[in-house]
Amino acid sequence: MANVTVIGAQWGDEGKGKIVDWLASRADVVVRFQGGHNAGHTLVVGNQTYKLSLLPSGIVRGTLSVIGNGVVLDPWALKSEVEKLTAQGVSITPETLQIADTCPLILPFHRDLDALREDASGQGKIGTTRRGIGPAYEDKVGRRAIRVCDLAHLGQLGPQLDRLCAHHNALRAGFGEPPIDRAGLEAELAEIADFVLQFARPVWLRLNAAKAKGERILFEGAQGVLLDVDHGTYPFVTSSNTIAGTAAGGTGLGPSAAGFVLGIAKAYTTRVGAGPFPTELEDAIGERLGERGREFGTVTGRKRRCGWFDAVLVRQSCAVSGVTGIALTKLDVLDGLDQIAICTGYRLRGETLNHFPAHAADQASVEPIYETIEGWQESTAGARSWAELPASAIKYIRRIEELIQCPVALVSTSPEREDTILVRDPFAN
Ligand code: GDP
Ligand code: IMO
Ligand code: MG
Known about the structure:
Elements: E1 4-8, H1 16-24, E2 29-32, E3 41-45, E4 48-52, E5 64-67, H2 75-87, E6 97-100, H3 108-120, H4 133-141, H5 158-174, H6 182-197, E7 200-201, H7 203-213, E8 217-220, H8 246-249, E9 260-266, E10 269-271, H9 284-292, E11 305-307, E12 309-310, H10 311-321, E13 325-329, E14 339-348, E15 351-353, H11 360-365, E16 367-374, H12 391-404, E17 408-412, E18 420-422
This protein binds guanosine-5'-diphosphate, 6-O-phosphoryl inosine monophosphate and magnesium ion.
Magnesium ion (MG) binds at residues 12-13, 39-41, 298.
């Protein structure tokens, strides 16, 4: 099995985009299988920086890039991202980009509802990206969604629009908003339809053919396991399953397709948005990590919260997602620290825990148990081989492997594509 599934092992922004771009040179197809344009994946190639939200990160290398049925697709966001990347010199054609004809659409009223609900939620705010992700997934499961294939049959939208309007107009009335402008929506869809339809395909057919031919498929997860709607820090999560298992259902390939599951983890921890974060550092070290790591959200520009590496959480992420190996990113951000702490367990009401409890209040009250190890003063930035790493950095990586019970397959030492240390080739396993 030559496939690789990349997923985030923390709260997102672990550096998945960089690693997927790096691995894409060895892949025949790159496939997104969940999430939407809430994702923000940054790729640095020479002096060019590419920021992708909806498009698979393989697109920059010209690798066939597929958006699977598990993604929620905002047609207008798609168009502007395609235009932005085309202006940067990336070739995006129906030969390089294919979109599942069964993808549910994110529509303007989904965005409205996301923002209206957040604004009305007081202390209960999730801190979403306000891009309509949650409301679009709700409509998919509620069997009200308009999908990509519907764009080729706009004259037959009546019953779906009846269902959508019945649901959303009741909600909108509650928020003091006018009902959905049906004719306006139909006109907007008619205007964007051809743009989306040029890429629309039954992608499961292409992917199954790729599998039969033994082509290498690289699945690109968005968000991270701690934002998974089942396994994450509920309710402070996104509205999709972000674990590797979703690669099958979100594309139309069987569960054996996932192959090597590569969990991406930062050498420390960040989170953007609300929710529990046991190892968060609200001090000078947290500020330092944020500055050195340039921890500002790609999508919303929000400052990311920073803290020490939490081995309990990453161990749990690896277990629930069946991670085969880890890519440890942003090691260089830790350069120059005297001491580095790793969370190895929690204390809750006098007891020691080796896992993250399920209840939000318990998650907010656990106290991390730390082990400290010596830092390193040398620079690891740009290292491309194990031999270039200081002994203390190697010791740190080895300790993480022990604690998370999972081997490190790659180490990343800068935003640049080639500044990557290969320990074990995920495609060779
Ligand atoms: P993603 O959402 O998982 O793809 O991650 P993001 O792109 O949102 O955030 C990761 C950020 O860290 C981006 O700005 C990357 O360019 C940058 N990055 C990735 N790997 C490294 C690394 O090893 N070192 C440093 N310093 N930056 C990195
Ligand atoms: P990438 O793929 C980090 C967070 C939001 C919020 C929660 C729910 O770049 O790692 P949503 O808009 O999805 O309903 O927001 O999830 N979130 C992310 N955080 N990286 C992401 O994606 C994220 N996508 C969503 O900040 O807390
Ligand atoms: Mg990101």
